[in-house]
Design goal:
alpha+beta; 27% strand; binds flavin-adenine dinucleotide
């Protein structure tokens, strides 16, 4: 007997998204979260990138975020701004929205989906056997689940307890990030760069007036300051913050009453395996890297969307356990790429003359159309390509959100994915496909589409006759009714045919 089919350790962005995906698939899932509320101490992620907005749109919840955020039609690599207004997506912008709001909105969604959260409780240990995982809790209880997913952040207990290695590079830079009050008003707000690193002072509170962010002229201040030494392991204190400010600004401006102080570094590490038996990891538990380019939360949320439907099918007995190995196979290279680009970006931000010359050179290159388009697609997650074999360029790439003419009128492709179910989209001769043996799992949609087919980074591609779209919005098959192989692909991704 299990208490839940799946337990998720950690209800940050990755854990919340995964819980939503599993709940949509009808899986009994619960979150165990150390924090007693969804409050996020301090500032972390500052927004959502185009592909993350698309995956939220695929579930019909993007509007909740758009209603509160600020659109900017740029992304950035190493601080070099890249125009994304010509990216072929409805969301050709980044959305400025603080992590505390992103988490609040996601938590509201999973509350609607009735996912239970054990709050104020930590996962303290685990033991897995052939049929499930015993999850030890800090209140002395133990819960049993078929699967445990560690979405418990960079210091993941689940990852460590499952014996998953976390190789990577040690920090070379250490930053303090805090929110506090200042007794004196600094003569300059904003970013300062020097040989030590990047520092910034700015008001926390802001409002949006006529589409512009207007910062408050009083209230708490957000502080980012690079520390002189790397390798501190104790929790940062007010006196650490004060000392770091004095070193950079010559004064600490009378800093007091901090509401949060935390440390982050440029360490870049990635789990060598995203799965160990019945234990999986996602988000920061699987990869940590510097916040440059703002990719951490995006990668975690998209890990969750890749894993959710697969885990749901395994739990329901629709697919064999081996489907879970595709989670590591697909997402590990994506995480590795994020580590690579953040490491490169950190190096390019150094303030010595040679690095500045290199940064200017890269900026010049990225000013050219083709490199800009490629990097913009990479930094916004729109060019993600899972290795699903040779074939049409759509294979393994995200399905665009086309306006489709169906028997129910004009529909957006993404609206067909709201229920997180796979779709076989037939744009050719109606009735040409028979997938009765998968009808309980895969929705066949007959439609017409007359517009262009254009993919981020690749440009125009030939119009396909039919595409099989997975619940995460990636294309598993492209072809026409005469082409063999659809049955095999359906079996691989969505389980064997039912007897008819
Ligand atoms: C300064 C800074 C700026 C950043 N800026 C950006 C940005 O602009 N864009 C971006 O995409 N990302 C950014 N990030 C990264 C982003 O904040 C993280 O990648 C994101 O929060 C990861 O989400 P997660 O759910 O995987 O992990 P976390 O957000 O760390 O959530 C883990 C959760 O697990 C809980 N937990 C931990 N241990 C246990 C346990 N044993 N039992 C139960 N619960 C547990 C924690 O309380 C927490 O709620 C930034 C990070 C920092 C530090």
């Amino acid at each position: 007997m299990t208490d839940h089919a799946v337990i998720i350790a950690g209800g940050g962005p990755s854990g919340l998204m995964l819980a939503g995906e599993l709940a949509l698939a009808g899986v009994d899932v619960a979150i165990v979260e150390r924090r007693s509320s969804q409050e996020v101490a301090g500032s972390r992620a500052g927004g959502l990138h185009p592909r993350t907005l698309e995956v939220l749109d695929q579930r019909g919840i993007a509007d909740r975020f758009l209603a509160e955020g600020q659109k900017v039609q740029v992304t950035a690599f190493a601080g070099i701004r890249l125009d994304i207004s010509d990216c072929p997506t409805r969301h050709n912008y980044s959305l400025g929205l603080r992590q505390k709001h992103i988490e609040r909105i996601l938590a509201g969604w999973i509350d609607q989906l009735k996912v239970p959260i054990y709050r104020g409780i930590e996962v303290t240990g685990l033991a897995q056997d052939d049929t499930g995982v015993d999850v030890d809790l800090s209140d002395g209880r133990s819960l049993r689940a078929q699967y445990l997913v560690g979405c418990d952040g960079g210091r993941s207990l689940v990852r460590k307890a499952a014996g998953v290695a976390f190789p990577g590079s040690d920090p070379t830079i250490s930053n303090l990030i805090a929110e506090a009050e200042l007794a004196e008003t600094p003569p300059e707000w904003g970013i300062r760069r020097d040989a030590l690193g990047t520092h910034a002072l700015g008001r926390v509170e802001y409002e949006i007036r006529n589409g512009e962010i207007v910062y408050a002229d009083h209230g708490p201040v957000g502080v980012l300051v690079t520390e002189q030494h790397v390798g501190q392991t104790s929790e940062p204190t007010l006196s650490d913050l004060s000392a770091a400010l004095i070193r950079v600004y010559g004064t600490d401006y009378g800093i007091h009453s901090p509401t949060s102080i935390s440390r982050f570094t440029d360490a870049a590490r990635q789990a060598d395996s995203y799965r160990r038996g019945r234990v999986l990891i996602a988000g920061d538990a699987a990869h940590v890297h510097p916040p440059d380019g703002g990719q951490g939360l995006q990668t975690g949320v998209q890990d969750a969307v890749n894993l959710g439907w697969k885990l749901a099918q395994v739990v329901k007995g629709v697919s064999p356990e081996s489907l879970l190995d595709t989670y590591h196979a697909e997402r590990h290279p994506i995480g590795a790429r994020v580590l690579r680009n953040t490491m490169a970006s950190i190096v390019l931000r150094r303030e010595d003359e040679r690095t500045k010359a290199l940064r200017d050179t890269i900026a010049e290159l990225l000013g050219m159309d083709e490199p800009r388009r490629r990097f913009a697609a990479m930094m916004s997650g729109l060019d993600i390509h899972y290795e699903l074999g040779e074939g049409h360029p759509l294979l393994g790439r995200r399905m665009p959100d086309l306006d489709l003419l169906t028997e129910n009128g004009l529909l957006r492709m993404f609206s067909l994915l709201h229920a997180a179910k796979p779709v076989l989209l037939n744009l050719g001769e109606p009735g040409a496909f028979d997938i009765t043996s998968w009808a309980d799992r895969v929705r066949l949609v007959e439609a017409k589409y007359v517009g262009p087919w254009e993919l981020p980074s690749l440009g125009p591609v030939t119009a396909p006759t039919a595409v099989l779209v997975r619940p995460d919005g990636y294309v598993a098959w492209v072809g026409d009714p005469t082409q063999p192989g659809l049955a095999d692909v359906l079996t691989t991704w969505f389980g064997p045919p039912t007897a008819t």
